[in-house]
Amino acid sequence: MQDISGNIAKISHLPVFYAGPILRKEPPFENKDPADRKKLFQSIFVFSASLPVRWKTFRYEKKLFGDYSSLQRRMFLDLRQYLYERVDFFSEFEEAVVYYDKGQHNLFAVLNLAFGDAPFTNSFHQDVKPDHYRLFQAADFVSTVRLLEAKRGNHSITDFEREFIDDWHFKNVYLRTLNRKELR
């Protein structure tokens, strides 16, 4: 297992990253110059890409489910299946650690149940404060880019978002890098 303290030290002088608010010019970044916000966004990208970690993202469209219980059940079953199919991979680690900020109660329940049932050693940390965990901020970045990918796919991306990251950089830099690090 690799130590990431060197990666974290390289960005310790920067503010806490929240990719969505940086992108959308929301607090605490509403008064930042667009060039400064782009530099921050690029910094969290470089940090995330340099980490010796990989990720898995799942995407669901609420409108395809009759109710939230059906969506929650599908998310649980998909995550549980994914964990069981990759038990050899996860068992290579001393412990798999899940951090969640309780941002969405139903997602918290899905994660808690799926990892509680997982056939490998893991621990679940709830009520995480994002400003204390740079890895959590990297996960936020990945989620933000995946949301932008979905919005581009269904043509609901805003002009503001499109101006912040042009199509070429989005596809050839951000998505290409995220896809290389995506667990299959």
Structural account:
This protein has helices at 5-11, 19-24, 34-50, 68-85, 87-91, 105-116, 134-153, 159-164, 167-181, and strands at 96-99, 122-125. With 184 residues, it is mainly alpha-helical. It has one domain. Strands 1-2 form a two-stranded parallel ribbon. α6 (105-116) links the parallel β1 (96-99) and β2. The longest helix is centred in the last third of the chain and has 20 residues, at 134-153. It is globular, with a radius of gyration of 17 Å. The model has no long low-confidence stretch (mean pLDDT 89).
What is the CA-based Rg, rounded?
17 Å
Q: Would you list the SSEs in sequence order as H and E?
A: HHHHHEHEHHH
The CA-CA distance between the termini, in Å, is 20 Å
Number of separate domains: 1
Beta-strand content estimate: under 5%
Number of E-type strands? 2
Defining key terms:
4% strand; mainly alpha; 9 helices; 184 residues; globular
Compact description:
It is built from 9 helices and 2 strands, in the order H-H-H-H-H-E-H-E-H-H-H. It is mainly α and 184 residues long. The protein has a two-stranded parallel ribbon.
